[in-house]
Design goal:
This protein has six helices and 24 strands. It is of the alpha+beta class and about 350 residues long.
């Protein structure tokens, strides 16, 4: 019986089948046990060889000449489709069970099944099948090439920008290496790369396709890296506000206003006193909009009139430093003076934008 080895390339998977020649003058044997002539082999890189979703190369007629011939003497059309690793879609199906990982490595075991249409096989070849028409087998992966492992992360620059609670990640590939350029860098699905806060953890994933590994002969040495978010601009919240600092600012404000405005006026005034120090928390959640409002008041007397007066000074840009301290000075960040005859009028005008908490 003449035998010829035919290799069917399925991406990186090869189903090797020895097909029995039955041309005129061949051996007189009239049956064949197909399981004796079928094996599975793989080629590619360990860790980056997958079972393809379809067959990418075709056997031409020349490779089948004098191998499989129909009864009328013409060569059958052997072809592959997306239907499941077909070897002549009417004769032989080769399927491979799904594996736990996307890619196969040396040492992995895969299971495969070859299903044969007995009637169609005999009609095409004139041979009778001997044994099972469904052949199951196992294959322990070996012989895959080992890629050169590259430390991808040492060629990446990570930085965090924005405000605390609204930060985002920047990734810069600092290498000109073509392999590094082809590696995909993503944030793990279990994490987010937006609305970040200082101290949060974020996992970075480095991945590449088997085609990239095949082209460069390289693969990532490490496929994940955990980063700690830092460097985002952090603004003072009520619990981190140095209250004594602003109470001192309020005392200074009252003293200055008494000296510069009240004492030199032609009208009669009461002493300037602190009405309150208020933390103004932005209602839209943007901590960069948080402010401190200092309210002082005095009474103006003119003839028979008694006029209450309120002045407001605003401190903005309440940025905390690296050791979580507010470094603002008295002369820094002062807003415009606001004049009101009652504090209620002032606060009512801002109630849709801020929540006010008195801290003194």
């Amino acid at each position: 019986m003449n035998k010829k080895l035919i290799t069917i390339i399925a991406g990186t998977v090869a189903v090797i089948i020895i097909v029995i020649a039955i041309a005129t003058g061949a051996s007189g044997n009239t049956s064949v046990k197909v399981s004796d002539y079928v094996e599975l082999t793989l080629s590619g890189y360990s860790g980056y060889t997958s079972i393809p979703s379809h067959i990418t190369e075709f056997l031409d007629e020349e490779s089948l000449e004098n191998e499989i011939i129909s009864k009328d003497g013409t060569i059958e059309n052997w072809q592959f489709t997306n239907g499941g690793y077909l070897y002549d879609k009417e004769v032989m199906f080769v399927t491979v069970e799904e594996t736990e990982s996307e890619y196969l490595s040396n040492g992995d075991t895969i299971k495969y099944t070859i299903t044969i249409n007995e009637d169609r096989f005999e009609a095409l070849t004139g041979l009778q099948l001997k044994g099972k028409t469904e052949i199951k087998g196992k294959y322990k992966v070996s012989g895959l090439k080992e890629p050169e492992l590259i430390d991808v992360f040492e060629n990446l620059e990570f930085s965090f920008d924005g405000d605390n609670g609204n930060g985002y990640l920047r990734i810069n590939k600092s290498s000109d290496d073509e392999f590094i350029k082809d590696v995909r860098i993503n944030v793990s699905e279990e994490y987010k790369d937006y609305d970040l806060r200082n101290g949060e953890k974020i996992e970075i994933i480095a991945s590449c396709s088997e085609y990239v590994v095949k082209e460069h002969g390289k693969a990532p040495k490490e496929t994940s890296k955990t980063l700690t978010v830092s460097g985002l601009t952090e603004y003072a919240t009520l619990d981190k506000l140095p209250k004594d600092m602003f109470i001192n600012f309020a005392n200074t404000f009252a003293e200055e206003y008494q000296k510069d405005n009240v004492s030199n006026s032609m009208f009669k005034y009461s002493d300037t006193e602190i009405e309150g120090v208020y933390f103004a928390e932005s209602l839209d959640g943007d901590q960069s909009e948080n402010e401190v409002h200092i309210v002082v008041h005095y009474t103006q007397y003119y003839e028979d009139e008694v006029r209450p007066r309120y002045h407001i000074r605003i401190y903005k840009n309440l940025v905390l430093n690296d050791i979580n301290e507010l470094e603002i000075k008295y002369e820094d960040g002062r807003g415009t003076y606001f004049f009101y005859e009652s504090p209620e009028e002032y606060f009512n005008n801002l109630k849709d934008n801020y929540k006010f908490t008195k801290i003194n």
